[in-house]
Design brief:
Blueprint (H helix, E strand, L loop, with lengths): L3 E2 L9 E2 L3 H9 L6 H4 L6 H15 L2 H5 L1 H10 L3 H17 L3 H15 L6 H22 L4 H16 L8
Helix pairs in contact: 3-5, 5-6, 6-7, 6-8, 7-8, 8-9
Amino acid sequence: GPIGYSSTCAATGVFRVASNRACRLLRTLKWSPPRKWKRGIAPTAPPLHRQIAETLVERFPETERSQPEILAHHFALGGEAQQAIDLWTEAGRRAAQRSADAEALNHFESALDLLHTLPAAPERDHQALSIRVALLTPVIAIKGYASPETASAVAAARALSEKGAAPGSFF
C-alpha cells in the first residue's frame, strides 16, 4: 500500500511502509522511531527498510536461515542490492527444495530482476547463470518441458554460458 501513517502502528508511532505485519513485527521488537518521525518528519523508505533488515539480522539471526525472503525484501527496498540478491537466491533454493515451485520461481525472478540493476561484470554474469540454472527446475515443474517459458529460460542460461559466465563448463 501507499506510504502513510497506519492506525495499527499508532501505538508505537511506526510509519507504515509495507504492511501491518511489519508494524506488528516492529512492535514485537519494541522498536521505537525517533521523535521527529512522530512529528511527521518520516525518513524515505530505503533507510527504514535497511534499518528493519539490519535489526532483524542483529536481533533474530535465525531469520536469515529460516526466512531469507523477508530479509531480501527489506534489503532490496533498502538499496542493498547484492545482499538482497544473495538472500532471494537462497530463498529460491530453499523453496525449490520444498517443491514450492511457484514460490521458488518468484524468488529467483526477484533475484534476477535486481541483479540486472547492477553494472555489467563477469561476476554478475556468473551469478546470473547460477540463478538461471536453479530456476530451470521450478519453470519445468510449473510450465512443462515444452513450454515457451522453459525454452526461454534454457536459452537465457545457454546464452550466459556461451558468453563465458562459467569458464570451463558448458550448459
